[in-house]
Structures are given as C-alpha cells and as structure tokens.
Amino acid sequence: MSDLGSEEGDESGEAGADIGEYEGDRNSEGERHGFGKARLPNGDTYEGEYKHGLRSGRGTYRFKNGALYTGDYLENKKHGKGVFFYPDGSKYAGDWMHDQRQGYGEYLYANGDTYTGEWAANKRHGQGTYVYKDTGSKYVGAWVNGIQEGPAELIHLNHRFKGRFLNGKPLGPGKFIFDMGCEQHGEYIEPMQEKEEEEEDEPPLPVEPKWKASEITKLTPWSPHEEEPAPREAEGAVTEEEKIPSVTVTAEGGGHEPSSEVFNPASNGGEGEGREEEVNQEITDLGG
Predict the structure, then answer these.
(1) Residue 138 to residue 134: CA distance in whole angstroms
(2) Rounded CA gap, 131 and 146, in Å?
(3) Cβ atoms within 10 Å, residue 44
C-alpha cells in the first residue's frame, strides 16, 4: 500500500477529441460545454461540467477498476478540492493541482492508518500528522518527499519523544517525556560501521541509530527547532547505550506506509534513589 494510490488511472481519453458516448450540453462550436455525461471507450464514465470540450468544474469520474474521483477539474486534470476513493479501500480528500495531491489533505490507508497534513507532488511534504491505527501512536512533525525528516514529536500512550528525524530515523539530541512528570535526556547516535577489505565493493547495510541517555530531570521546556547544549551529567545518570527500533518510512512508490514500530527509551541498571529510582523502573518496564 502507498499514498501514491492503488491506481490513479488514466483520465486522458477525452483530451483533444470528441470520443466515446456523450449526452449533454454543447456550445455553438459543437464542443462539450456545460453539464454532460460521457462513457469512454475504455469503460470509464464521467458526469459533470465541461468547458470547450474538456472536463472543467465539478464532476465525478468512475474508473472501470472501481476507483472514483469526485471534485474539481481544470482542463481534464484534477485541480482544486476533491476526494479520490481507491480500489483497495484507501481514500484521499483534499487539495489537488495538475492531477497531483498538492496542498493540504487527509489520506486514509487501507490498513486504517491516517495522514493529515501537507502534500507536494503526490508525497507527504511539509507539516503533517501520521496516526498508527494498531498502536494509537502518532508522529507529528516535518516530512520531506514522503519521509519523516526534521523536528517532530512521536506520541505514545504514556510517553513521547521529542527530537529531530533524518531519512525516517531519529538522530541527534532529544528527550523522552513521561506522563509521570519527568524526562530522560540524551541523543540518538549513528554507530560507525567497521569496513572489511573483502567487502569494500558491497553497499553498506543500513545502521539503526542508538539512544545514548545522559540524565533524568523534571519537565523542562525545549523545542527541537532550537539547538540544545549537551545536558549536564547528573549523579547516577543513565549512560548505558541501547539500540532502539525506529519509525521508518519507505521511499514513495514502494507501496508502504511508515512502519508502526515505536520507540522505547533505553533501559538502565542505575541504582539512584527516590524519584530517579522510580523513573528508572518505568524506563526499564517500557524498554522490556
């Protein structure tokens, strides 16, 4: 599945020619002009407005494969506001420009996930929110060409992560914020890969960033838009590194939504007392 749609279909059958069956208004030149109904040779149908022989204005286009678009047209292209229903049950409702999702819109995926936000050239691009149906978690933040990239917040049932993403993975300073009223500060680090001489010609395998915790504090204001100095090492601070599964987005056209895997902060074996001991236990429980 992909937000490129199961099958956009080809609506160019009427362009430049008066083909197929047509019933409706025409202008003095004999062109389809006004309201009409058409059945194309490929079995698709259109009912709506025409201007000078082209679909322009409001209309509904039904594809023979079961897909349906209803909304605005401009010179035979989806342009303006419209809703597209795909054969697999997914749906997009929002802005269109020159036959592409462009502007603001909501995509309901066949698996129940949703994305609401900005689009460019048929891809999630700009600010948007992706909600995972299975877990209830959601990613709120920046997207670039369909991939999670930039400042963002990943929200779970009882905690959330604030930081920056690069190529669909967290990278750099960030923090886990717990509903119990505390935070774990740290950063995601990209591990160095060891190169072997006999494998120099082989492409490197993808490496998952590792979470390196530095300290636990009370709730503090912080925005991923701003550079944050390295947190001060606290007594009994968590320093253990642990590999954390990331939320990833495959390249557009690959037929997938972002993975519904979610982050868990690193567990630790610290022997702190009082509040920190309670937080450490919470983190350990979350980390498994």
Answers:
(1) 11
(2) 15
(3) 20
pLDDT attached to residue 249 = 35
**Dihedral angle at the C-alpha atoms of 121, 122, 128, 134, nearest 10 degrees?**
-160
Whole-number Å distance between alpha carbons of 194 and 23:
69
Q: Which tokens is 181 given?
A: 């009223």
Residues 268/240, Cβ–Cβ less than 8 Å: yes
Calpha distance 175→288 (Å, rounded): 19
Q: What is the pLDDT of residues 164-184, one digit of tens each?
A: 999 999 999 999 999 999 999
Residue 142 bridge partners (DSSP): 127
Tokens at residue 163, please? 């930081």
The 8 Å CB, 24+ separation contacts for 121-129 are 122/3, 122/4, 122/5, 122/252, 123/3, 123/252, 124/3
d(CA 17, CA 149): 44
Q: What is the DSSP letter of 39?
A: E
Average pLDDT over residues 202-227: 76
The strand ranges marked E within the chain are: 21-26, 32-39, 45-51, 54-62, 68-74, 77-85, 91-97, 100-108, 114-120, 123-131, 138-144, 147-155, 159-166, 169-170, 172-178, 182-189, 210-218, 241-243
pTM of the model: 0.73
pLDDT at 54: 96
Q: Assess contact for 86 and 5: CB atoms under 8 A.
A: yes
Q: What contacts 192, CB < 8 A, 6 or more positions away?
A: none
Are 180 and 282 within 8 A, CB to CB? yes
Q: How far apart are CA 2 and CA 25, in angstroms?
A: 38
CA-to-CA distance for 185 and 212, rounded, in angstroms? Answer: 9
